[in-house]
Design goal:
By secondary structure, this protein is an alpha+beta fold. The protein has 2 domains: 3-38 and 225-466, no CATH class; 45-216, no CATH class. 17% of the residues lie in helices and 35% in strands. The strands form 10 sheets. It has a 4-stranded antiparallel sheet, with no helix packed on it. Strands 6-7-8-9 form a 4-stranded antiparallel sheet. β28 and β29 form a beta hairpin. The longest helix is centred in the middle third of the chain and has 14 residues, at 241-254.
Length: 467
């Protein structure tokens, strides 16, 4: 029996070995992660965090000077994940968190649309019929970019960042001051006099848009300075295109989730299955491999479970797989499956501060990581085990026909392995030495068999079961 103590501020190293009754993997306490994690920035001015895709886009396109400070965390808005900044709103379709898929909300267009018909009929918005030869003119909107703003527009991103001009330059009363402005699809450029010099700035339309929705204002509540308090990594080596796609999209779906102090996190309730473009992958349904939309989500839920367990948080619902899953099951008996709408994974943030879930997906190394960021309270986690019993042999091989496969082809989806019971005892201790949790994570794996898909023209071998 191994007694493995994991401090709140240590990293769990999970290796990619295939699980079987002859290999009993261990959990190793390894790297001190008391330093700020790569990919997460904290802005004390607003108490907000910037990470992942939105951070990359932010830094690659001008950062604070162009977009201002972050005002909210990442928010789910229908089929979008959005984050508000002083001068912009970032948006990306749920599950499509690639840097080149981030878009900037057309905030300038939004505020121009709120002007009265009388205002829109005024010369600044009426358009230019005879632009000068040296004008930077856009027939798409019928407007030029004034000399006052042209250099700033060209040097700081042009069309991708600012969009087309929607007006000519004119003077507008803003906060009691008459300021020279020009509206573009995504911004409002403003000319301010600073120390007797004219300085071009981007108006705070992101903030104005945020405060149009009273229900969003609560998101501006500052978060405390957080540290990485738990982490877990799993491998999806050998995964097909469908599983890789679904892991990436499910990871993006939960990235940035905030779990308030005392609140219960639900994987299903925190997910957006309706607006996420999951693709078909294989899942185990009633003991049989079947194509389901979202196959591969259990990789994500398992990694969230491991991180929550390693962080010492209260696990309130965890359903193990029916069979040992070799694709990421590098630690026997340490998994959590999900199946919408009833099979969920849940935990309670029983710390005194909020938790921020941060996802790192590495499609090159085929590694998926979930980090919990919070305020360390001195709790420690100890695992006793694994305790393995009732080991049984694999069952008879199963071959299942798939008419969509290439003629004469086969594809082995599962390598047969035995059944067994596996248990871990987890003890979570407070900083004062008193016990906070004592759990027995018990998993009963049924024996699993070689599972082979075969296409037209293939004759299965004798002695196998056909489906």
């Amino acid at each position: 029996m191994k007694r493995l103590v994991i401090l709140m501020m240590t990293l769990i190293c999970l290796h990619g070995a295939v699980a079987n009754p002859r290999y009993i993997p261990q959990i190793y306490a390894a790297v001190d992660v008391n330093q700020a994690g790569e990919g997460v920035l904290y802005y004390s001015e607003t108490g907000q965090y910037l990470h992942g895709t939105f951070r990359r886009y932010y830094e690659e396109n001008g950062g604070t000077a162009i977009f201002g400070l972050p005002l909210t965390p990442i928010i789910s808005d229908g089929g979008l994940r959005v984050q508000y900044f002083e001068r912009a709103r970032f948006e990306v379709p749920v599950g499509h968190d690639a840097t080149n898929e981030v878009s900037l909300t057309r905030i300038g267009s939004h505020f121009v649309s709120q002007l009265s018909p009388e205002d829109l009929a005024q010369p600044p918005f009426a358009g230019i019929s005879n632009p000068g030869a040296d004008s930077l003119y856009f027939a798409q909107t019928g407007h030029t970019i004034s000399k006052r703003f042209r250099d700033f527009w060209q040097k700081n991103g042009g069309l991708p960042i600012f969009g087309f001009p929607l007006s000519e330059d004119f003077f507008q009363a803003i906060n009691g001051e008459s300021i020279e402005v020009q509206y573009f699809e995504r911004v409002r450029l403003e000319a301010h006099i600073v120390h007797n010099q004219v300085t071009v700035e981007i108006g705070h339309l992101g903030k104005a848009l945020l405060y149009e929705s009273p229900n969003l204002v609560a998101y501006t509540t500052p978060m405390p300075g957080l540290q990485r308090v738990a982490t877990a990594t799993t491998s999806y080596k050998g995964a097909g295109v469908a599983k890789k796609t679904n892991i990436a999209r499910a990871g993006a779906m939960i990235d940035g989730t905030i779990v308030p102090a005392g609140a219960e996190y639900s994987f299903l309730k925190s997910s957006n299955f309706a607006d996420t473009d999951f693709v078909e992958g294989y899942g185990i349904i009633n003991g049989q491999l079947s194509k389901i939309v979202g196959g591969g989500l259990c990789q994500v839920s398992t990694t969230v479970f491991r991180s929550a367990s390693n962080g010492g948080f209260a696990i309130t619902m965890r359903v193990p797989h029916t069979y040992v899953v070799t694709t990421y099951e590098d630690i026997l008996g340490f998994d959590a499956t999900v199946l919408n709408p009833s099979v969920d994974f849940r935990f309670v943030n029983d710390s005194a501060n909020p938790l921020l879930l941060v996802v790192h997906n590495d499609p090159q190394k085929l590694r998926f990581t979930v980090e919990f960021w919070g305020v360390p309270d001195g709790r420690t986690v100890q695992y006793d085990g694994p305790f393995i019993s009732n080991v049984s042999k694999p069952g008879v091989s199963v071959w299942q026909y798939d008419p969509s496969m290439k003629y004469g082809s086969t594809h082995q989806l599962v390598v047969g392995r035995g059944g067994m019971k596996v248990s871990y005892v987890r003890t979570v201790t407070r900083a004062d030495g008193s016990q906070l949790h004592n759990d027995n994570f018990l998993t009963t794996y049924a024996p699993w068999y070689n599972f082979v898909m075969y296409g037209p023209g293939v004759v299965p071998p004798a002695g196998v079961r056909l489906r």
